[in-house]
Amino acid sequence: MAEIILDSKAYKHNLNLIHSHINSHNKSNVEIAAVLKDNAYGHGLKEMATIAAEYGIKSVFVKNYNEAIQIYKFFPQVTAFYGMPQGDFAKNIAFVIHDEKHISALPQGTKVELKVNVGMNRNGIEPSELESFIQAILQKKLELIGVFSHNGYGDDLDSVFFHTQSNFAKLKQEVLHLSQKYGFAPPRFHSLSTSGAIRVASEGGITDDLVRIGIGAYGYLDVSFENPISDKLQKVASLYADRVSTRFLDKGERIGYSGCTTLNSPQVVSTYDIGYGDGFFRVNENHKVYIANGLQILPRSSMDCFSCFCDEPRICVFNDVTHLAKAFGTISYEILTHLSPSIKRTII
Description:
This is Alanine racemase. Its EC number is 5.1.1.1. Pfam families: Ala_racemase_C, Ala_racemase_N. 29% of the residues lie in helices and 22% in strands. The protein has 348 residues and is an alpha/beta fold. The protein has an 8-stranded parallel β-sheet. Strands 1, 10, 13, 14, 15 and 16 form a 6-stranded mixed β-sheet that branches. A two-stranded antiparallel sheet has the order 11-12. Helix 1 (8-24) packs parallel to helix 8 (194-202).
């Protein structure tokens, strides 16, 4: 049975590394919050929640209600980025306000975080709407625990990143002014993901209350600039596949759909139990894709398996998806988040 091995020591190492880098450049301690959305970037929601809780993480972010109710017992605070509750929920689950309809959909007393657009133009209210939304939140008797944004330029070296940071700094001052005006407790502020947090920490310090650490905690940092931690991060997930069958084929014989692979010499060929039905990208004749030991995945791969010149009973398909992302013209996030939740996951 195919299996994803999760290295808990690697995850904790990465969090230690990021925490040390950020807080060595800061006068005040910045909280590290874990992003566990989309099945913990494909690693496994409950498995990674277990490791994060052991580490001491207090605040986490998930995709939606369905993810939040699976792990709310692990942490003091869980925030769902998208959607509204579909049933009962614990008091430590907060929901993000992107639109007026979200305010009306929530019962009194619900914890909320207000997302504001400061330059990415994706989600969140406009800064000009800030006061009216806060008024509506207070009138509905919702508990505003956070105001946040997302700086979508953390991976890039251009000046837009700093312009966006400046916009959020102005927003924070306005929120603090409104908290005095309307008598509500100042909420927590956050705007930075892994790459942005590393960058701001290196260039003068972070003024937010927390940073949202996602891909970096899993061992990846897909950025276009040099930084002090990328080479020190350790990959958390390794994918293993088990042999289904083995056969000896003569020169000239063909393998798989449309016989895309033709043997130039006699070979031992085995199939292994991972395919595109498991979320592993489909390998065709236009791809050169290799497993961890350097052997090629023979095109075309199938829904439930792929072929390889090998007879090992178990092989490591990957322990680092960087080369797979390059082969498929994408980023590490996409390779990881595609992995099926039905694949067995084991923490070591």
